[in-house]
Amino acid sequence: MKRLLSLLVVNFMSFYILDLLFSNISFNNWQAIVAIGLIFAIVNAVIKPILKVLSLPITILTLGLFSLVVNAIVLQIAFRLTSGAYIAGFGTAFWASIVLAIVNSAISNLVKD
């Protein structure tokens, strides 16, 4: 339970940092950041594995680079499912997913037990 809570807090902080870094990403209020953090965790757990399996041949052909596209799609799905959260388009989602992975990793290492 403690690990899940810390992962959610890391997600919330990461999305807040994305909001600060990208002008094409916006949240109406802090509740939208909390909502996107929760929805992103659910989409990551449910939809992302399905997309990874379906895109495995393309991922192998591109030597793993297509996984960046899968991450962007997952991020875009999470934004579309969250009211009060806005992302401009796929290009923004692509770069934001890369930054999100880096920021999530950095924050996770900082709050590591």
Secondary-structure blueprint of this entry?
Elements: H1 2-21, E1 25-27, H2 30-54, H3 56-61, H4 66-81, E2 85-87, H5 90-110
Antiparallel strand pairs: 1-2
Helix pairs in contact: 1-2, 1-5, 2-4, 4-5
Judging from the principal axes of the Cα atoms, what is the shape?
Answer: globular
Question: Mind summarizing the main beta sheet?
Answer: 2 strands, antiparallel
How much is the average pLDDT?
Answer: 93
- First and last CA, distance: 14 Å
- In the residues, how many domains can be counted? 1
* Spatial sequence of strands, sheet with the most strands: 1-2
Q: Give the helices and strands as they follow along the chain.
A: HEHHHEH
Question: Which class best fits the helix and strand makeup?
Answer: mainly alpha
C-alpha Rg (nearest Å):
14 Å
Q: What portion of residues is helical?
A: over 70%
List low-confidence stretches. none
Tally of individual helices:
5
Proportion of β residues? 5-15%
Number of strands: 2
Account of the protein in words:
The protein is mostly helical and about 110 residues long. The protein has one domain. About 80% of the residues lie in helices and about 5% in strands. The protein has five helices and two strands, in the order αβαααβα. A two-stranded antiparallel ribbon has the order 1-2. Helix 1 packs across helix 2, helix 2 packs across helix 4 and helix 4 crosses helix 5. The longest helix has 25 residues. The two termini are about 15 Å apart. The relative contact order is 0.18. The model has no long low-confidence stretch (mean pLDDT about 95).
